[in-house]
Amino acid sequence: MTAGLHPGFLLFVVACAAALTSGRLRQLIMLAGTAFTCYCVWQLSPEASWTFAVPEHTLTLLHVDRLSHVFGLIFSFTAGVGCLYALHVRQGGEHAAALVYAGAALGVVFAGDLITLFVFWELMAVASLFVIWYGGTARAQAAGQRYLLVHIFGGSVLLCGILLLRAEGADLAIRALTETDYRNSTAFWLILIGVAINAAIPPLHAWLTDAYPEASTSGSVFLSAFTTKTAVYVLIRLFPGAPILLWAGVIMTLYGVVYAVLSDDFRTLLAYHIVSQVGYMVAGVGIGTDLALNGAVAHAFCHILYKALLFMGAGALIYATGKRTLTDLGGLARAMPVTLVLYMIGAVSISGFPLFNGFISKSMIISAAAKDHLPVAEFFLIMASIGTFLSIGLKLPYFAFLGPHRDLKPKPVQPNMLLAMTAGAICCTALGLYPEWLYHRLPYNASYHPYTVDHIVDALQLLLGTTVVFWWLLHRLHGEPAVNLDTDWFYRKPLRLVFNYMITSARQIGIRLEQVRLHLLATLYPYLQNPFLPSLQLGLQTRRLTADTPYNADTHRLPIGATILWVLIFFALIVFYLLL
């Protein structure tokens, strides 16, 4: 019965219902609607398909295979957990925007052609913009505007690539461009750049670290899950084995952890770790082997779970204290023990601790690099995992929960927030204990066994060594209020100068046009009093008539005979026409 339903459209319906209702009814609709969507995704079969014919093309709105199915499962589940976390939020518009955002992400995942993918891609950008704006602050409004400009540019580049690909004679079915004759074409690179912007590949990443920390505490949970992971999905579909992606991913992993260590705002810290963790996925796509691609899919799946849990923990801190920087927090372990425990499950997951889900996915990509004889990439991927544990597993929990007391009096966290965090923590732990559940659903034919003695010993050695280094450098790692310049400086500052110049020029043009308008009115005013002034007389008198010329009926009014002449000519033309 549900095998043919499109899960994205189901979430659109739930979004409309959430916007039109309130109170307990809205909460029930959101939870029931997202649960039903999860069930529908679970029931989807590879034969399920939605197509829509248009001139010269067939749009495939629903295409199901193993790759789209595993992404659909985690997206729909995260939408449900995010709604549970946000139950206490009273703004129906925020719920609607978040659900449309999740539905559009599902639309991208199940799209069978590039046009359908692009439509949902842009809908996802618009919906996520409103999720950011519902942060409700001036900083959120400004960050949303910059977010919009970047995604307009990215969407335009992507559309140009799709249209150029079509103009070159290719059909628009979604397939690996690296395995076609178009792998070095202009369309190939335009599409890659458009997707890379959403994947937050440096230097095209700053929109993420600028906007995500400014969303509401519940909105940031949705933002952490969808945009970058849909980009990873598209990279797996279109660009498997592209060499440039391997080194782009390696750079991402290192770039993100360096800025995370420097960050004082803990949601900015988590945002930079999205860049870093997505780097592992991008590197896996660049390696391109079955094991690496499975690793990219598995890491995307696990990352959504533990990153949502981490953002929920950060949101709980903000909700309870009203603070968002490490320098303002400290000594909260006794007041918020449940939040600390749940947060630490997410922290050890992202750090790659054995028995948690980050270990079973990140190690796949590192092992794929080793098997493909890429020692440099393998080394840097391991180094990035050290920085991850240093900043998220040690720095943030120490200074927020275990550091010096700040005389804070946190208010109780909402039960639904803790329940959502518990659901995420259970999933992170369950996948770490039973990775076969996920491995059996991965799309490519490659086996992997994470719990070998070598893997476990290597991981524990790295984590223990990182802990020793943290205690040694503890006095230097305390966050300080500062502005860390990122690549967005290179376009924000010049663009501000350009916009200021454009605004000044527009004002000057407006002043000049107003002067011209006033001059024309002064010149034409005498003739507006006499619209029938003969054209000859108008031409002869133009140079001497001004607004100060007194009105003279003998010279300004048209004689009655001229009017009679025009009427006779008009009737003569009518008679002549009828006689023909």
- The gyration radius over C-alpha positions equals 31 Å
Count the strands?
A: 2
The tally of domains stands at 3
Residues in helices, as a percent range: over 70%
Largest sheet: 2 strands, antiparallel
Poorly predicted parts: none
Mean pLDDT across all residues, rounded?
88
- The structure class reads mainly alpha
The N- and C-terminal alpha carbons lie at a distance of 73 Å
Assembly of the depicted chains: single chain
Strand content: under 5%
Give the strand line-up of the largest sheet: 1-2
Tally of helical runs: 24
Shape: globular
- How do the SSEs run, as a string of H and E? HHEEHHHHHHHHHHHHHHHHHHHHHH
Quick rundown:
The chain is mainly alpha-helical and 580 residues long.
Written overview of the protein:
The protein is an all-alpha fold and 580 residues long. The protein has 3 domains: 1-227, no CATH class; 240-484, no CATH class; 531-580, no CATH class. The chain has 24 helices and 2 strands. It has helices at 7-20, 23-43, 66-85, 92-110, 114-133, 138-167, 186-198, 206-211, 219-225, 227-238, 243-262, 266-287, 290-321, 337-351, 357-371, 375-402, 415-433, 436-439, 453-472, 474-477, 489-528, 535-541, 553-556, 560-579, and strands at residues 49-54, 57-63. The chain has a two-stranded antiparallel ribbon with strand order 1-2. The longest helix has 40 residues, at 489-528. The N and C termini lie far apart (73 Å). The mean pLDDT is 88.
